[in-house]
Design goal:
The strands form three sheets. This protein has a two-stranded antiparallel ribbon. The protein has a two-stranded parallel ribbon with strand order 3-4. Strands 5-6 form a two-stranded antiparallel ribbon. It starts with 17 loop residues before the first helix and ends with a helix. Helix 7 runs parallel beside helix 18. The chain has three domains: 90 residues, Fumarase/aspartase (N-terminal domain) (Fumarase C, Chain B, domain 1), CATH 1.10.275; 250 residues, Fumarase/aspartase (Central domain) (Fumarase C, Chain A, domain 2); 95 residues, Fumarase/aspartase (C-terminal domain) (Ribonucleotide Reductase Protein R1, domain 1). Helices cover 59% and strands 5% of the residues. The protein is mainly alpha-helical. It is elongated. The structure holds arginine (ARG).
Length: 461
């Protein structure tokens, strides 16, 4: 007996095996595109009406029926569909047919699920990119607020996770802002490559009906129409690009997470994370663990995994549609959900964090002022390499004698090199060290204020 419930059942004599039917079914995950699918079908039906495939009465039935179907899915989710329904495209049509009868079956004239799914995905992703961009901005705002609230407070700056030179805490925070800004721009730039409409490509060869694709493009909110139906119905590089862009963003966030895990630990105590984003231990009553940051760091693996999954899926796939492409959705949807959650939680983390700039200041090791001394000699005409060697010897002596570099007076320094004359006993004042770096992009207060000013213009828009 042919499988009458399947849209393609006509040429089949036997039903699908239930195990394969389950494997083949994408409805449980592609149901989330129901709004896009309904919007597409509405626009498409209007076009079918314009070219005479559907009369005015049928169009009215379809458009009103689709609205009811949308409400039904909104309320009931997966439960409104029969278990045989393969995907959201068949699902919408089947529900519509249950309401309005046969005219629903005309809606698929001249289109294929191949161009339909590609169009739905692009619409869905465009919508989600906007949401993600807003969440990135919200996170950036929290960064700027924190930086601004303590614009002149110093902290140790690290390379190799070893104290290097003092910087301003605000400068450190703003380093994340600018890194994330590039992630934002990358994602924003992607929109123009997502906003290309495949509809009209049909299965691969283009529709045989005289559709006006300009009309469809405008109705559905796309910027462009894909130029080639074989490419349009099957290309997924826009998903690859999205997953790559989010992976890069997650690298930025994982660095942020790693730093804040370290800096909020007992050993540093630069930050106190709020109870809102930490957990305790089931055995050790004393513990407060930075799980939100650890999960942020951990989810990077998942996001990169999704990207690699799609690269692997697409590699060497023959031209145009292959069912493999149905597997593009899980990684895409999972990445969307994951990054939204990560961004939202980290905004809360920054909103509720206690910043202990006193501890930051007290932890600064004055050996990290050594470059200051070498710079002083270089400014007095000593070749920098020579200056470096002399200060290196001073550092070595401090370590041997157990004294602090910052406590050396002008006279102590002069014993190593006469060019230190005039440096003054206050050479190690941290604010004056930092204020020397007011060049564009440096850690001086004036420079950081400019960064904040610039950032505010970006995040306020
Ligand atoms: N559920 C399918 C997908 O996600 C829709 C396209 C089906 N096309 C086909 N030729 N079987 O890819």
């Amino acid at each position: 007996m042919s499988d009458v419930k399947k849209p393609w059942g006509g040429r089949f004599r036997e039903k699908n095996h239930p195990l394969f039917e389950k494997m083949n079914r994408s409805l449980p995950f592609d149901i989330r595109m129901y709004k896009e699918d309904i919007k597409l079908n509405s626009a498409y039906s209007k076009e079918l009406n314009r070219i005479g495939v559907i009369n005015d009465v049928e169009l009215k039935e379809i458009l009103e029926g689709l609205k009811i179907v949308e409400k039904e899915i909104e309320r009931g989710g997966l439960s409104v569909f029969d278990s045989e329904v393969e995907d959201i495209h068949m699902g919408v049509e089947t529900l519509l047919a249950q309401k309005i009868g046969d005219s629903a079956r005309k809606m698929h004239t001249g289109k294929s699920r191949n161009d339909q799914v590609a169009t739905d995905m692009r619409m869905y992703l465009l919508k989600e990119i906007e949401v993600i961009l807003e969440l990135i901005k919200a996170f950036q705002k929290e960064i700027v607020l924190l930086a601004e609230s303590r614009v002149g407070d110093p902290m140790p700056g690290f390379t190799h996770l070893r104290q290097a030179q003092p910087v301003l805490f605000s400068h450190y925070m703003m380093s994340f802002f600018f890194s994330i800004q590039r992630d934002y721009e990358r994602l924003s730039d992607l929109k123009k490559r997502v906003s290309i409409m495949p509809l009209g490509s049909a299965a691969l060869a283009g529709s045989a009906f005289p559709l006006n694709r300009e009309n469809l493009m405008k109705e559905l909110g796309f910027d462009k129409i894909c130029e080639n139906s074989m490419d349009g119905a099957s290309s997924r590089d826009f998903v690859l690009e999205f997953l790559s862009d989010i992976s890069i963003l997650s690298i930025t966030l994982s660095k942020f997470a790693e730093d804040f895990i370290i800096f909020s630990s007992e050993a540093y105590n630069f930050f106190e994370l709020s109870d809102k984003v930490t957990t305790g231990s089931s055995i050790m009553p004393n513990k407060k663990n930075p799980d939100s940051l650890e999960l942020t760091r951990g989810k990077t693996g998942r996001l990169i995994g999704n990207m690699v999954a799609l690269f692997t899926l697409l590699k060497s796939l023959p031209s145009t549609y292959n069912k493999d492409l149905q597997e593009d959705k899980d990684p895409l949807f999972d990445t969307i959900d994951t990054i939204k959650e990560v961004l939202e939680v980290n905004s809360i983390l920054l909103q509720t964090i206690e910043v202990k700039t006193e501890n930051m200041l007290n932890s600064i090791d004055s050996l990290s002022f050594a470059t200051e001394l070498a710079d002083y000699l270089a400014k007095n005409n000593l070749p920098f390499r020579e200056a470096h060697r002399i200060v290196g010897a001073i550092v070595g002596d401090c370590l041997d004698k157990g004294i602090f570099l910052k406590d050396l007076k002008e006279s102590d320094l002069e014993a190593y090199c006469s060019l230190f004359r005039g440096i003054g006993d206050k050479w190690s004042d941290i604010s004056s060290i930092i204020s020397k770096r007011n060049l564009f992009g440096g850690t001086g207060v004036e420079s950081v204020k400019k960064q904040i000013e610039y950032a505010k213009k970006i995040v306020v828009n």
